Amino acid sequence: MKKSFILTLLTIITLGLFQPATALAEEPQKLPSGIERDQIGQKIQDYVKEHEKTTAGMATAVFDKDGTIYQGNFGYMNKEKGVKADDGSVFEWGSVTKLTVWLSVMQLWEQGKINLEEDIRTYLPEGFLKNLRYDKPITMLDLMNHQAGFEEGAHAAYLENKGQTIEEILSVSQPAQIFEPGTTTAYSNFGAGLASYIVERISGQRFSDYVHEHIFQPLDMNQTAILPGFADNNYVREKRKKAQSYDTEGNSLGSAYFDFGLYSVGQAASSPEDFQKFAQALLKQEKLFQRSETWKTLYTATSTFPGTDRLLNAHGFMVEEYGTVVLGHGGNSTGYSSYILLDLKNGIGLTVMTNQKGEDIYNVLMPELVFGAKKKTDKATFENFKPGYYRSARYFETGPLSFARTLFYTSYVPKSMDNPQLNQNYAVLSHEGGQEKITSTTGDTLKISDTEIYKDYAMYFLAVAGVVYAFINLFISGVAGLIRLLKKTPAKMPKALRIWNTLTSLTVLATGANFALLFLAMTSGNIGFVAPWRYTIFAGLGLILGGCLVYPLLIKAKKGLGKGSVFLTVMTSLSALAVVTNIFYWSLYQWWAL
């Protein structure tokens, strides 16, 4: 009986010990957003259903360190042919490719082959960087933080690949350094490209070979390519040929294929499965480094919001604040958008891939289902904001694309709760060295003086006035010539001046037309706006107009001209001068800078 009592007691204790644990294990776990894990799939499906009219193709995965919580493919890779998105589809990474650069750098750092705080010129050929303005050295941390100070680089960012090496691309047409290193966050493809070149220099391998050997292969990523034309993976190349791209409304962009010259910063493409393998390794912190301390270093802050301890960048990993802090990187190519987001605190990750250009419904808004609502800018920041003209720190300051700095990169921002600079992303205001700036997760936006803006707009006005005058002049001269022909009356202006007047106005109109085509290319997202031939034309037209300006000063018959002829000559000369001044002011003649 005593033995029976003991057995009964042990049974009760055992049940008492293990039943609560079992019940606890069966309790649904919640994501940072508060949504239960087993409900996230339905939430995502409902979200896609809500936006299906504008959706093309989309693949997403929610996962933790142990595996996949939810994975889904939606829509079409080719709507016209009915090719659905599936596990074998191929999506472009865009700038998520840059994570391979920063991981490669950290691998070399772990091996003691690079000092992140050393002047990068230590690792480059002597005299390689030609447009540095500041004595303060650029470090690898500056490149990782996008704080090397470079303006937007047309050649590095938009050059189509024609077999050039990374070194060859970076050595030509380098962007100017317009900010002191470490002071301003201006996203830079050129800077990331420099880092990939340094990887080549230190490792002795072509960057693509290094990444395959040290990142893709260890993670068993067999459906991933990084070279232009996806030459390093037949599967990816063939799949990409069959896919189409779309805009944010779901309208076709055709294949939207572009061989990114500086492939190391934006060319990678893969299946959703490989993309998740990559992201999950980053979350699990496995396989890519030899020591756990390296992972810890990788995810520590290298840049913070001004005046705060809030994380802005961690060795190249960008930071977003939803209901929790997430690290990762987004990417956009000519027809694709993608995102990797990692919540290291809660051990949750998310990948998103779409075949839509500039897509944000899934890449920016849908993550709220997993991580909670995006952090908003605090009320005090709105109250302290100073209205005025603001310009993205990522802009063209010099060279033939400088005309875009005010047209496309600058806008007047009023003091309002609808302020787009403050309500789209969490932002902080600061004042350093006499410069007012807004810092958000996407970079810095700088307050520009009214004088500088008015000067640029005055130049735009002169150019437009010159072109409008040339059009009116040609029209009136044509009508007047036709009337004289019908009435058989002689012209009061000498024939040579009439020819000069027509030639000058035609050249002014041709310059305006060339600029209009350039403007359309930029606004339509056509990367051809950086084609050197456009600016060679500006140079040629500028030379012709220069000659036209000189001609009236040399002719002998100018003393006998009537008042009307003198007035016409002066006005036509002024229209030519207005256009020539713009060509020089915006450096539109510098075709060699592209």
UniProtKB/TrEMBL annotation:
The keyword tRNA-binding does not apply. Keywords: Membrane, Signal, Transmembrane, Transmembrane helix. The chain crosses the membrane at residues 457-486, 498-521, 533-554, 566-588. Residues 1-25 form the signal peptide. Residues 48-359 form the Beta-lactamase-related domain. The keyword Transmembrane helix applies. This is FmtA family protein. It comes from Streptococcus sanguinis SK355.
